[in-house]
Design a protein that fits this description.
Elements (H helix, E strand, L loop, with lengths): L1 E2 L3 E5 H10 L13 E4 L8 H15 L2 E3 L6 H7 L8 E5 L12 E4 L2 H10 L2 E2 L5 E7 L8 H12 L8 E5 L1 H4 L3 H11 L6 E4 L10 E6 L6 E5 L6 E5 L10 E8 L1 H11 L9 E6 L2 H9 L2 H8 L1 E3 L8 H4 L6 E3 L2 H9 L4 E3 L2 H10 L6 H9 L1
Parallel strand pairs: 2-3, 2-5, 3-4, 5-6, 8-9, 8-11, 9-10, 14-15, 14-17, 15-16, 17-18
Antiparallel strand pairs: 1-7, 12-13, 12-18
Length: 373
């Protein structure tokens, strides 16, 4: 099938190498105003070299350059007006770039497809199986988009949706804020879907499979390593006991909704003495909105360290021996899995509650108390 992308999002050495090897097209087949290069995390090793290459390639092809952007391609594309609902975004070299809670479809491509896009404005792609997930009901206290995504990922398993497109819709998705949708899409990507999209209700035609979920009884979830050390397992936080954590990361692409939830839990309190808490907003917009509304000050007063937007702590610091980690982002989860430390993927309210207690816990009782006060 031939597809014509509405925008390009490129990042990292893989994408820059593909650009360097691509011959310059005789005529420009794409809208340069809707193409963007992410030059990587400014705290990462070798970032100066990467940024220099990105600047050169951005200038050569007329692309915009954004620095840094560790896994936050979709929010920035929408924030800058480069993509919108219904758009197809071709992405190369961006971790987590195949998920979108904004109504656009982010499609991973390789170097060959990128060259075809630059020359012709189109690329050929195999159409994956399309699974429609109808999400009914109403989410309960302290339950967010991440919990919905984790639950779905747990239902499919580590490879259960490999190569498929997951389309989320229904009443639960319709009322979610964009940041919650983004968190849901990122968490659901654990099951290795080719792409993930949030879409309104449509006719039940053209899908390879239909799944119907009632999320009213859903409680806060977590994902951890599989028992055999491979893959992952998902379970309700209410079933966990004595799972101690010493590092908590709210990010590295925390939305305004996630920052608000974390600040609500932590306001007027202090993190556990044995816990180090980092917070990283997902964009400048989320950062300044949280600053203006006082969420960042609540988090800082509680003991959090606020990082530049879309940034993880140093890998060595995050994965220090014996330091179990709770994180709200797919990127942080994968870094910790690669570092062979105990890691838990949770929503922002659950992460904040873990920072207070020094261990994983169900934030529902605390959340209900906050609602009643």
């Amino acid at each position: 099938m031939t597809l014509r992308p509405d925008a390009l999002a490129l990042g990292g050495d893989e994408a820059l190498a593909a650009l360097e090897s691509a011959p310059a097209p005789a005529t420009r087949a794409w809208d340069a105003n809707r193409a963007i290069i992410f030059s990587g995390d400014c705290r990462g090793r070798g970032s100066s070299r990467l940024a220099a290459r990105a600047r050169a390639q951005a200038g050569a092809f007329g692309f915009r350059l954004v620095h840094p952007a560790a896994g936050c391609a979709v929010p920035v594309l929408h924030e800058r007006g480069l993509a919108g609902p219904g758009d197809l975004v071709a992405a190369l070299g961006l971790p987590g770039g195949r998920t979108s809670g904004h109504g656009s479809l982010v499609w991973p491509v390789d170097g060959g497809s990128l060259e075809e896009i630059l020359q012709r404005g189109t690329f050929k792609a195999d159409v994956p199986d399309i699974h429609r997930l109808e999400c009914r009901g109403e989410l309960g206290p302290a339950v967010g988009g991440v919990d919905v995504g984790l639950y779905v990922a747990g239902q499919f398993g580590p490879d259960g949706a490999r190569g498929a497109l997951l389309e989320f819709g229904g009443a639960v998705v319709d009322v979610m804020a964009e940041g919650e949708r983004e968190g849901m899409a990122a968490a659901a990507a654990l099951c290795e879907a080719a792409a993930i999209l949030c879409a309104p209700g449509t006719e039940a035609e053209g899908y390879n499979a239909l799944f119907d979920y009632d999320f009213t009884p859903l409680t806060p979830q977590f994902a951890g390593r599989g028992k055999d050390g491979a893959g992952f397992e998902v379970a309700p936080l209410a079933e966990v006991s004595h799972a101690f954590v010493r590092r908590v990361v709210i990010g590295p692409a925390a939305s305004g909704a996630e920052l608000r939830a974390a600040a609500r839990v932590l306001a007027g309190k202090s993190v556990h003495s044995d816990v180090q808490l980092w917070v990283s907003p997902g964009s400048r917009q989320a950062h300044f909105e949280a600053l203006a509304k006082g969420y960042l000050m609540d988090l800082i007063d509680a003991g959090a360290t606020v990082l530049p937007f879309c940034t993880l702590p140093w890998a060595e610091e995050l994965t220090a021996a014996g330091a179990a980690v709770a994180t709200t982002g797919l990127c942080g989860f994968k870094v910790c899995v690669a570092g062979e430390v105990e890691v838990y993927y949770v929503n922002s309210a659950s992460a904040a509650a873990a920072a207070l207690a020094g261990e994983l816990c169900d934030p529902t009782p605390l959340w209900k108390k906050l609602e009643s006060d």
